[in-house]
Amino acid sequence: MTDRFVSVVIVGARGRMGQTLLRAVLDSEDMTLAGAVDRTESPGMGDDAAKLCGLPPSGVLLTDELRPPRGSVVVDFSLPGAADANIARCLELGVPLVLGTTGISGETRDLLKRAGKEIPIVSAANFSVGITLLTQLAATAARALGPEFETEIFELHHRHKRDAPSGTALRIGKAIAQATERNFDEVAVRSRDTTQSQTQSQRTAEEIGIVALRGGDSAGEHTIMFLGAGERLELTHRATDRDIFARGALRAARWLVGRPPGLYDMADVLGLGRR
Ligand code: NAD
Question: Would you state the torsion angle of the CA atoms of residues 40, 46, 50, 52, taken in this order, to the nearest 10 degrees?
Fold first, then answer.
């Protein structure tokens, strides 16, 4: 935590994450809102941004142009198509960036890497501090337990989630594979079907199984099971509130102030170092 005010510009301010971020910034004691941006066609352009989250006027108007003042941090949770222009604008103005938008292209990733040579950036597909730690714990556990323990990942999300398995489950699987020198794409088994012959359906030792459940309103649950002979280790994270992503992103924004250029992730923000 810094001992001075952090001024934040929110991109995608009208969206679900944008409104959560707006509320968190306006309610915080160490942050000020320096801008709120959404796309031109969005309703409410020119209105006070605080109106979007039902708070008293902030004096900051919703705009369609990203013009972050010097000394501010841009927090972008919009859509993949907007990322390149936002990264380019932060680069041009020398302003740090927290990028939460998921589904960005390979070209955008390359742009992020180039931009990270000149400005500090935190990019993460999951800003939850618990998930960041869970990923590291799972990799450490897999390495320590060794090949005699089989790995299965289970995830549960609300009925509206489009992708399955979740990007987070896949990232945890990749971290485990990397920690144990396996190629994730070769060992990942995303579902099992017993209509296959018994030999084919038996798991191999190196397999990493991933099971996805959908339904209800769960904000996200991930469990990694390490199954051995006579013992089983389970690591579980349950999200009960989507605000965790906004809290993590704002923690990243505070951490970025005064940081040297670099492309960082949430593990860096938590002081966990590179995986
Ligand atoms: P949303 O659809 O509710 O909001 C997106 C907002 O971005 C909308 O208001 C839209 O008008 C705006 N937008 C679109 N194009 C824009 C542009 N060119 N300039 C400015 N604003 C623009 O989506 P959401 O649920 O708030 O999620 C936003 C993004 O954040 C998604 O990519 C989502 O996957 C991601 N997300 C990431 C995390 C994380 O921890 N990294 C967590 C939750 C959501």
Answer: -40
On the question of pLDDT at 275 being above 80, the answer is no
**Residues with Cβ within 6 A of ligand 1?**
11-12, 14-18, 37-39, 42, 77-79, 82, 100-103, 124-127, 245
Q: What is the pLDDT of residues 104-134, one digit of tens each?
A: 889 999 999 999 999 999 999 899 999 999 9
Ligand 1 centroid to Cα of residue 78, in Å, is 3
Neighbours of 2 (CB within 10 A): 13
C-alpha 193 to ligand 1 mean position (Å): 35
pLDDT at 74 over 70: yes
- Residue 234, sorted as left (phi over 0), alpha (psi -120 to 50) or beta, turns out to be beta
Residues 243 and 24: beta-carbon distance below 8 Å = yes
